[in-house]
Amino acid sequence: MFANIIVDITHEKLDKIFQYKVPSRMEGELSIGMEVWIPFGKGNRITKGYVTGFSEHSDYDVSKIKEIQEISKDGVAIEAKLIALAAWMKEQYGGTMIQALKTVWPVKKEERPKEKRMIHRTVSVEEGRKWLSFFQRKNQKARARLLEVLLKSEDVDDGWSTRKLGVTAQVVRAMEEKKILTVERETVFRNPVRASGAGRARITYTEEQQEAIRIFQEDYERARFDTYLLYGVTGSGKTEVYMEMIRTVVSAGRQAIVLIPEIALTYQTVMRFVQVFGNRVSIMNSRLSAGERYDQMMRARSGEIDVMIGPRSALFTPFEHLGLIVMDEEHEATYKSEQVPRYHARETAIERARIEGASVVLGSATPSLEAFAGCKKGTYRLLRLTKRAKEQQMAQVSVVDMRDELKNGNRSIISDALRGKIYDRLEKKEQIMLFLNRRGFAGFLSCRSCGYVVKCPHCDVSLSWHKGGRMVCHYCGYEEKVISVCPSCGSPHIGAFKAGTQQVEELIKKEFPQAGVLRMDLDTTREKESYEKILSAFADQEADILVGTQMIVKGHDFPNVTLVGVLAADLSLYMSDFRAAERTFALLCQAAGRAGRGSVPGEAVIQSYHPEHYSIQTAARQDYEAFFEQEMKFRSLMGYPPSAHLMAILMISEDEALLEKGAYYLKIFAKAVGSDPKLEIIGPASPAVAKIRDLYRKALYLKHEDYQVLIAVKNKIEQYIEINEGFSRIRIQFDFDPVQAF
Ligand code: ADP
Ligand code: ZN
Ligand code: ZN
Question: What residue owns the CA closest to ligand 1's atom 19?
């Protein structure tokens, strides 16, 4: 028996795994994640290592393999727990152990540590003046400039002086040698959050909030660590409930992780936490440098902070005594990693909590089907907030049938009803948000006269329009020629919807010249902080109308917004993706939730070519449970998650012919190893984007009720491609229960 061991998990050297013999006395005792002492290197220095896996044979000369010395008795370190988590992720989602380890452990990149260097004047003012006139006489301008500043302030930041004063390192060194100044270096762990310490007024929880908190606290006190779904409408006070739960955990000496989709991680949200937990809070986001992120992880490791807020990757914060993981907006697609291992933060959070003995609170106004189905099965506990905290009413939602607009001669993308309401709000000086439901590309064909959408007869997802006049199913590869006449009503108004936010903005400006219009989409938010700038300009009522993509519907509080218009509700409905209806429902509910956050009740208008579709009907009534029932029927009929499991195998190669052949053989192999008659194999098909940067892509889909069956097939395929030369130029990735079509 051999154990795979990594020696140093703090550096990039990580990608080396060493094999050691497991002495027979340790067999049965040793497990993944354990800390062991091993003889290492030429001198056999006794070093600490971590077990990442086991194997029964070795690729090396067995007589030269060293033996594990002993199991470290230090107990289970946080490192060991995260390694165990990595091993679980590797098994669950595919990929290598190193890829999994790099995901869970903050690896220090070989970059120079961030040093703050301060220059201090060491001479007296009097003596300094003498030096100054000396430098001036000698025409040593840089030295004079620096000294002038030092005479005023005693010390300056080295970085500032080099930038602003144009003083080189040599100049500083020369002056240091003359003992005019000293340079002090200190490594700083910068805290991206500056605590204002303002504190805040205490609020009285609503009855529903109290009940949710009470259930959590009772369980927690009895050391019952569970997974909860806090299902509460927008504005019902979920964040307040999270904070109270975190307070419970923190006052018991444990720590909490709060996962928030990056896009919702705004200054305001962070400040709410800072007001409660002061400088014991830190954040992670993609704007921090790799070094800064590493620093935050180390601050957590050393016990400097209690609460870490961040997107998906914050899940791996190395807290010593993790007590709670909160996952806000748990239905968001960004919780699924797009890199190997393609883990889902929800499942991984639950596994991490299991390893640590911690609780998980999932929160959403429109829970994922997975989470709600989990409650129905009794694996998660449901906590409900049905009312808004400040007792505002939910928005009044109406649906406009866009097919009628065309009939009545209105070819604009704004319906007459919505136009009228926009005029009304502009007059009342209330604000309006116009949301173009545009997710990715909208490459499906639909009829503007009757709403007909061309779908795959086998998969019940819409066919994607490809250049060259074909319509293709991304799951099974089924193809048809593009049609120019609607097969359902004969209308020639069939085509792909192409309007983007920029066109909508121009159109709005033309139709409502009196209104101030802001636009928010990927293009206008590319620059640093532009996102927050647009939001705060709109919050300060510098504009009347905000036009944007789904970015604008995520959790912002604009009390003066009383009208929300959804311009093309169907665009996300017909993404060629089995989650399209779920995503549409969630987006429409969120959009409606933006209206009427202040004292005036709000209104939302949903424009659709398919107003009878259940995701639009139920969203208009804000009836999640009715949506859930309908959607689950579709999922179980088609064998889609969460009713069954779907494993996508993505194959990537620069050689198209080779890829085709590889996909063919892989399908045959999958059929052979997964001899289970209930295992369904679909494809190979070309994904939505069949070629990216000259790399061709193909996908196979495997369906089965039992996740373990899919894992077993995955493991066999991983072995097969490793020993098979033909696959050396094809990259293969697995995606379990995908949330995005490839
Ligand atoms: P959610 O996270 O469910 O959208 P928030 O926690 O952000 O809801 O609450 C919405 C607003 O209501 C916030 O401004 C919050 O401060 C306020 N709020 C929440 N709970 C209460 C309460 N019990 N009393 C008064 N205001 C509350
Ligand atoms: Zn038609
Ligand atoms: Zn199909």
Answer: 237
Is the pLDDT assigned to residue 268 strictly greater than 90? no
CA distances in angstroms from 191 to 284, 299, 319, 456, 532, listed in the order given: 10, 9, 17, 52, 20
Q: Please tell me the predicted confidence (pLDDT) of residue 354.
A: 96
Q: How confident is the model at residue 199 (pLDDT cuts 50, 70, 90)?
A: low
**pLDDT higher than 70, residue 58:** yes
State pLDDT tens for residues 70-90. Answer: 988 666 778 889 999 999 999
Measure 234 CA to ligand 1 centroid, in angstroms: 9
| Residue of 239, 362, 388 best suited for mutating to test ligand 1, as the one with most atoms within 8 Å of CB | 239
The answer to whether the CB of 205 is under 6 A from ligand 1 is yes
* Mutation choice for ligand 1 from 205, 206, 240, CB with most ligand atoms inside 8 A: 240
Q: Name the nearest CA neighbour of 195 among 270, 255, 144, 245.
A: 270
Write down the pLDDT at residue 742.
61
Q: Is 289 helix (H, G, I), strand (E, B) or coil?
A: coil
pTM: 0.81
Residue 361 contacts residue 566 (beta carbons within 8 Å): no
The partner residues of 45 in beta bridges, in order of sequence, read 40
User: Tell me, what's the pLDDT at 392?
Assistant: 77
Name which residue sits closest to atom 4 of ligand 1, judged by CA.
235
316, 299 Cβ separation under 8 angstroms: no
DSSP 430-498: -EEEEE----S---BEEETTT--B-B-TTT-SBPEEETTTEEE-TTT--EEE--SS-TTT--S-EEE--
**Closest ligand 1 atom to the C-alpha of 272?**
16
- Whether pLDDT at 539 is above 60: yes
